[in-house]
Amino acid sequence: MFLNKIIGLFSKDIAMDLGTANIVICIKDKGIVVNEPAVVAVQEDRFGKRKILAVGQEAKQMLGKTPPNIKAVKPIQGGVISDFEITEIMIKHFINKIHNRKSFIKPRIIICVPFGVTPVERNAVKDSAINAGARDVILIEEPMAAAIGTGIPVSDPEGHLIVDIGAGTTEVAVTSLGGLVICKTSRAAGDKFDEAIMNYVRQNYNLYIGQKAAEQIKIDIGTAVKLEQELKMKVKGRDNAGFLSTIELSSESVRMAMNELFKEIVMVIKNVLENIPPDLAADAVDNGVILTGGGSLIRGLDTYIANAIKLPVKVSHDPLLAVAYGTNEVINNTKLLKIIFNE
Questions:
Q1: Are residues 298 and 182 in the same domain?
Q2: How far apart are CA 73 and CA 187, in angstroms?
Q3: pLDDT single digits (tens) 164-187
Q4: Domain tally for the chain?
Q5: In the chain, pLDDT over 70 holds for what percent of residues?
Q6: Which residues contact 306 (CB under 8 A, 6 or more apart)?
Q7: Is 249 inside any structural domain?
Q8: Could you give the CA distance from residue 289 to residue 24 in angstroms, rounded to a whole number?
Q9: Taking the C-alpha atoms of 208, 209, 210 and 212 in order, what is their torsion angle to the nearest 10 degrees?
């Protein structure tokens, strides 16, 4: 124990939000030092041997544009690691990028994981980080990190309801006394929004578009409520005959494309509210609901949810980085670390 404290004085503790869309890394006392797409470009030869060509932003630029022998891989799908070898390479790449290569002391890493990952998946995440160069690995559940990152006093004996709409999953949780009292998850999240837009455009306009185009549509004209003045956007793609074509898409069309997913998120929130202990339910009514994650930035989603559950709903400050801010707070706050992990 004493040796660990001594080592801790010389190593750089790292907090990592290992998200489906982005990987965000913080260093103790420095804050965010990496915020890049969780994408790795891999070249495979005819014998199946893989060579890493790019990681992060450079690799994302290759999505959907590579020749057959090169693949831009997203190793984390739906909040779960789908390719452990590539994930390990990605973690190692960023550790080497930010950690002092001359230092012989390996860092301790706190990594966010989705609520409800299996023991096998938890061990796989730890193993990936250890193999990538970590001295010790601590896992924190994403809803807790998001709550901390929004400024919720999670150690207080008071219930707070947080909805984290990420790329792979939406997690609805109630925090109290340093833990998650209840948490429910859904796949109705950012990637599913993109998929719904792709399907809608194909079915209604006979136009095929890629995920990057669908994501841009979601950002530029996506909405969860009807707008007084519709937004419109030119969308390019390939039609059924194989020709390049351009259509004009409206915000109302995009709302219709994503509407069933909005309903699913509301259903999960209602399910959590129905299962909260009565005293904490009273707190939730007083405190309202806080939205985090990139999905919370869709126009009018806070209004849509508030109308559906009859509670005040607000979007957190800088929701894209709420989880990262939370993990950063944990590595810098020894008292909080002890409360959450019972150290």
A1: yes
A2: 20
A3: 999 999 999 999 988 999 999 999
A4: 4
A5: 94
A6: 289, 312, 313
A7: yes
A8: 25
A9: -170
